Amino acid sequence: MNSHEISILYLGRDRGTSLDRANALRRLGHRVEHVDLRQLLPNSAWIDRVTWHLGGSILSPWILRGLRHTLKRKRYDLCYVDSGEWASPRVVEWLRTRAGRIVNYNIDDPLGGRDRARFAAYRASLPLYDLCVVMRTQNVAEAQALGVRRVLHMFRSADEVTHAPRPLTDDDRSKWKADVLFLGTWLPERGPFLLDLANRGIPLTIRGANWHKAPEWRDLQRLWAGGQIEGDDYAKAIQCAKVSLGLLSKGNRDLHTTRSLEIPALGGLLCAERTSEHLQMYREGLEALFWEGGEECAAMCRNVLEDNALGRRIAAAGRIRCIANGSYNERGMNAIVEDVFPASVKRG
Q1: What is the Cα–Cα distance from 225 to 214, expressed in whole angstroms?
Q2: Which of 154, 162, 203, 292 has the fewest CB atoms within 10 Å around its CB?
Q3: CA 131 to CA 150: how far, in whole Å?
Q4: What pTM was computed for the model?
Q5: Distance from C-alpha of 190 to C-alpha of 174, rounded to nearest angstrom
């Protein structure tokens, strides 16, 4: 094994933040083979329904057959499992024959109550990993109770490339302009909150998936500007908004989300719920805006919409703080590799 480079089998989706983390490992100089386990399964919506309602272990025969066919006799220094809903004990035990170390990284709440069936295979496999990385402090004790060998708590992260500010044209500013933007998927608690903001006169734009499911859809539809966006569109939408809302998932026990890092990294103004983790990340009122409830959120939005220079100053300070915190993928991925191969990674 090269003293500064390791070979990594990366098992995770080939899009979104999972792809960002795989690319960060490549930028760190490691040799990465990326396999999307979902692509080893039949291309049918019922696969996702089975996973969400019955768990991924039932799909192990497809996963194992696909891995054997894809990997042949290849071996790796490290197998990195991102999420792990399809990595049953049978799968992880087989991966042990191909990799010297196996780690899991999960940005969801796989030990909580919301997605319990989806992550049944993850929970059963916990004792088989060399390291499990979790995003919530309560996950540490929960994983230990299930027999994990070693658990590491980390905050989520932005990406050095995906969340770098883009140059903007006049057409970009016209297309993506928004006063107060919420960019994210519908969840039951989000509809009433955003409707409350709209009823308080906040000029709101909503982008994201599944908003047609909201009981408040008839009132929110006029504020909805389209479904999920990624890449340059995602970056430009945040850059062109005067305020970007960071809403949490109560079912996922969030105290911060990826938006908490991505919005400031892109130079956007983060306006999010006041939590202990958000207060660790940014100075309130100087580097981000925090609130408790719709009335306080609306007041903060009005304040910066009336004083654009104030909003720009807070957004710029938030980006500086995000960079200073090292809230990026390369630092996080390097910490994981150093944890399992402390002598193999160039330091400094």
Answers
A1: 15
A2: 292
A3: 5
A4: 0.93
A5: 27
Q: What is the pLDDT of residue 295?
A: 97
Amino acid found at 25: L
Using the predicted structure, report yes or no on whether residue 215 has a pLDDT greater than 60.
yes
Confidence of residue 346 (pLDDT cuts 50, 70, 90): very low
Task: Tell me the average pLDDT of the chain.
Answer: 95
Residue type, 345: V
Q: What is the DSSP string of 37-70?
A: GGGGS-SSHHHHHHHHHH-SGGGHHHHHHHHHHH
- Look up residue 173 and give its two tokens: 């500013």
Indicate left, alpha or beta for 222 from its phi (over 0: left) and psi (-120 to 50: alpha).
alpha
Sorted by where each starts, the structural domains of the chain and their CATH numbers stand as 7-157+328-340 (3.40.50.2000), 170-325 (3.40.50.2000)
Query: 168 near 236, Cβ under 8 Å?
Result: yes
What is the amino acid identity at position 27? R
Residue 241: other Cβ atoms inside 10 A: 25
DSSP H or E run through 204? strand 204-207
Interval 161-188: pLDDT, tens: 999 999 999 999 999 999 999 999 999 9
Give the whole-angstrom CA distance, residue 220 versus residue 323: 35
315-319: which pairs have CB atoms within 8 A and are 24 or more residues apart?
Answer: 315/264, 315/267, 315/268, 315/269, 315/270, 316/267, 317/283, 317/286, 317/287, 318/263, 318/264, 318/269, 318/270, 318/282, 318/287, 318/288, 319/264, 319/265, 319/266, 319/267
Q: Which two tokens stand for residue 228?
A: 């999920």
pLDDT band at 343 (very low <50, low <70, confident <90, very high): low
